[in-house]
Design goal:
Elements: H1 3-9, H2 23-35, E1 45-51, H3 56-61, E2 74-80, H4 86-103, E3 107-112, H5 119-123, E4 134-139, H6 145-148, H7 150-154, H8 163-166, E5 167-169, E6 171-175, H9 178-181, H10 185-192, E7 203-208, E8 211-217, H11 227-232, H12 237-255, E9 260-263, E10 276-284
Length: about 290
């Protein structure tokens, strides 16, 4: 299964079968997790696969809709050390893991929150300087799990913003067309299909020659500082979303035999609104 198929196959599964992960699959996943130890922006990370404990359901109920996760076989839990961009790196690497988990025949669901003081933190022996901004439930999807998921329907999870709202050329006054994107149009389409918290899709990408600038456009009354996120003590999930988008672009570009590197190169352009901020740039190598 290549990157494109994994992206198209993955969906947020909330209803799992009561079935443990096959031993060979578990070992392959654990081996993969051990190799993911640094984010693309330099944050030291570590990830573990935990069996679903007896207290998992009760703990997830404290995070609102996550209490509707049923029968996960396990959880992928990571920890990020203090760094300039820990959430973006965590989002990138967790999504990379999720795509590999999909290739292994498992289903997953992102669970964003504040797990720093949770039983998950205790089970991975979290250090004082580490944070756990999200975990991933995994297992085998129950029959018709996608059709039965009313949370997914409520979030309109299969709907995506159009190209002209997400991708731009030179300035934010000029949407990027598929023709202008050229060979990387498919990689951008994989970004468009990326998952995000409540399907808000807060990433914006602006191309200037071989530079692909990533911006975060925060959703009004949602995310950091909002009442919902304050009450539920959620992490800044829209920064995790940027990391997910970064992952989809770079892994898809590699599949198309393009390489690049992540740099800080804010072009200092006028921004469409005060909710938008520059994050990072992917520099395409020639």
């Amino acid at each position: 299964m290549d990157t494109f198929e994994a992206i198209r196959t993955r969906y947020s599964c909330r209803i799992f079968m009561k079935r443990p992960i096959e031993p060979e699959t578990r070992q392959n996943l654990k081996r993969y997790l051990q190799a993911v130890n640094t984010g693309p922006l330099g944050t030291p990370l570590r990830f573990e696969l935990l069996a679903a404990g007896q207290n998992a359901a009760a703990e997830l109920r404290g995070l609102g809709t996550y209490g509707f996760i049923r029968n996960p076989a396990g959880f992928i839990v990571g920890a990020a050390q203090a760094a300039p961009r820990p959430l973006e790196d965590y989002g990138y690497c967790m999504e990379q893991i999720i795509l590999e988990t999909t290739r292994l025949g498992l289903n997953t669901c992102w669970l964003g929150g504040t797990f720093t003081q949770s039983s998950f933190a205790a089970r991975v022996h979290k250090m004082p300087e580490e944070i756990i901004p999200a975990v991933t439930a995994t297992g085998y999807a129950a029959p018709d799990s996608r059709a039965r998921d009313f949370i997914r329907r409520r979030a309109r999870a299969d709907r995506r913003l159009p190209w002209e709202k997400l991708f731009f050329s030179e300035t934010f006054d000029h949407p990027l067309t598929r023709e202008q994107a050229g060979a990387l149009a498919l990689a951008l389409e994989m970004v468009r299909l990326a998952p995000s918290a409540s399907n808000k899709q807060p990433w914006r990408i602006l191309r200037q020659s071989g530079l692909w600038h990533f911006y975060l456009e925060r959703t009004p009354n949602y995310g950091q500082g909002s009442l919902l996120f304050t009450v539920l003590r959620l992490a800044d999930l829209q920064r995790l979303d940027i990391g997910i988008a970064m992952c989809h672009l770079e892994l898809s570009a590699r599949e198309l035999e393009y390489r690049g590197e992540w740099i800080e190169a804010d072009p200092g352009l006028p921004l469409p609104n005060e909710r938008m901020q520059y994050i990072v740039t992917w520099q395409q190598k020639t």
